[in-house]
Design brief:
Blueprint: H1 3-52, H2 82-87, E1 92-94, H3 100-106, E2 110-115, E3 122-127, E4 149-151, E5 163-167, H4 186-191, E6 194-198, E7 202-215, H5 219-222, H6 228-239, E8 248-249, E9 261-268, E10 271-288, H7 289-298
Parallel strand pairs: 1-10, 3-4, 5-9
Antiparallel strand pairs: 2-3, 2-6, 6-7, 7-8, 7-10, 9-10
């Protein structure tokens, strides 16, 4: 065999080895992506199963029930005790959407449920002792996407802090907080103005005040979550963004010391250094009608 033929065979062998390596890498990558897709699909099916357990559909503001001959002014503070709840005049009532006993059998870290009318946001809310645990852990504690909607331990689970921040991934097909980006359309922002939070004992309604492209700095680190000054400074930083692209802010908002804010935070796909925020203010607390009737019966 002459040197030329030997060299040709060596080149062919090298090309074959490279091809086999590339093929193995492609198969491995394909398997990894397929595994991730299957896992995400399974998690979404798990969420669908939880939604199917709803006792009733979400109650809109127009469907809110009131007791006969009872005035229904808006309440600005969360009742702190059973006595206060029972004696408070002008309460608002609604039906629950979830059985929290069943939810916590699925995962004991579930403490609320979030609905954002007009979007696909319809998920349990979780909190772990480890900050950002649910950024890359699922309901069954498996690691990976899609993760969960969650708050960190700096926030109380009853939403009594002056400012509560919830986080979720911006995933395709409107999963998790992906559909919040619908608020990038001004008409959609004008027509969809509510966030509903269901706690085990009541429903909280927030009016959406702003949808903004915001710095990715940590809100709890820069702004006090427990004081009026903290929410005032945060709101000033939001208002300062007025006129920026994909940013819409309700004009003339003035916060008071009694106000409580809720911010939904998600990433912006392919854009580093920024996050997309939906900011709401608590406007109503509705107790569960069925719970009230049960208490009245026992008395």
């Amino acid at each position: 065999m002459d040197k030329r033929e030997k060299r040709r065979r060596q080149q062919k062998m090298r090309r074959l080895v490279i091809f086999l390596l590339l093929l193995a890498a492609a198969v491995g990558l394909g398997g990894f992506l397929l595994h991730g897709y299957i896992r995400e699909k399974q998690e979404e099916e798990r969420y669908e199963s939880l939604r199917a357990q709803m006792a009733t559909e979400a109650v809109t503001e127009e469907e809110t029930k009131t007791l006969p001959e009872t005035t229904v002014p808006e309440r600005e503070t969360i009742p702190e005790t059973e006595e206060e709840t029972e004696s408070a005049a002008g309460l608002v009532f609604c039906d629950p959407v979830q059985d929290f006993t069943k939810l916590q059998e699925e995962n004991e870290d579930i403490y609320a449920w979030i609905l954002v009318p007009g979007t696909a946001v319809d998920y349990p809310v979780l909190q772990s002792e480890t900050d950002n645990y649910y950024l890359d852990h699922n309901l069954d504690h498996s690691q990976g996407y899609p993760g969960c909607i969650y708050s960190n331990a700096c926030n109380e689970q009853d939403f009594s802090d002056s400012h509560t921040v919830l986080y979720g991934h911006n995933l395709t097909r409107d999963r998790m907080f992906g559909s919040l980006h619908r608020f990038e359309d001004e008409e959609f922002f004008e027509e969809n103005r509510q966030i509903l939070i269901y706690r085990p004992d009541c429903r909280l309604t927030y009016e959406i005040l702003a949808a903004v492209v915001y710095s990715d700095r940590s809100i709890p680190y820069y702004y006090n979550l427990y004081t009026y000054k903290g929410i005032e400074e945060f709101w000033e930083s939001v208002v300062a963004l007025e006129g920026e692209e994909l940013t819409y802010i309700l004009p003339g908002v003035e916060l008071t010391e009694e106000d409580k804010l809720l911010t939904l935070s998600t990433c912006i796909r392919h854009v580093e250094g920024y996050r997309y925020l939906i900011v709401g203010r608590l406007t109503e607390i509705a107790l569960y009608y069925s719970d009230f009737l049960e208490e009245e019966t026992t008395e």
